[in-house]
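User: I'm putting together notes for a lab meeting next week and I want to include a structural view of one of the chains we've been expressing. I don't have a solved structure, so I'd like a prediction I can at least talk through. The sequence is below, exactly as it appears in our construct file.
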Amino acid sequence: MILVLYYVLKQRDENPIKQNKAIIVISFLGVLSMFIAKYGANFGFPWWLFYTLPMFLTILVPVFYFKMNKFEIIKYIFLIIISSPVIHVILSLFGWKNYMPFIKIPSLFKIV
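Assistant: Thanks for the context. Below is the predicted structure for the 112-residue chain, given as structure tokens.
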């Protein structure tokens, strides 16, 4: 997410993602989203809640926090949507199937 934001905001005179406060906010958002997804699934919340709430947080918080213009918003949303399946494939290849469990990707390693 930090790399996507860095790329999206690189046209600005001073890229705000280089500030410590921005890194802390985005890191907290990532941890909060993972917490909601993990514990939402474990506590039996409906799937549409623990998948969509982190998605909306991931999309909306950076847009408002960095005060993105329309071009930056379009680029950001496109890259965030594309990055999710890419992250799933990479994690699945190494045996972690929890990220998007409804899409089956074979692992490169046999986990016992």
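A couple of points you could mention at the meeting. The chain has a mean pLDDT of 84. Helices lie at 2-8, 20-42, 47-65, 70-93.

User: Perfect, that's what I needed.
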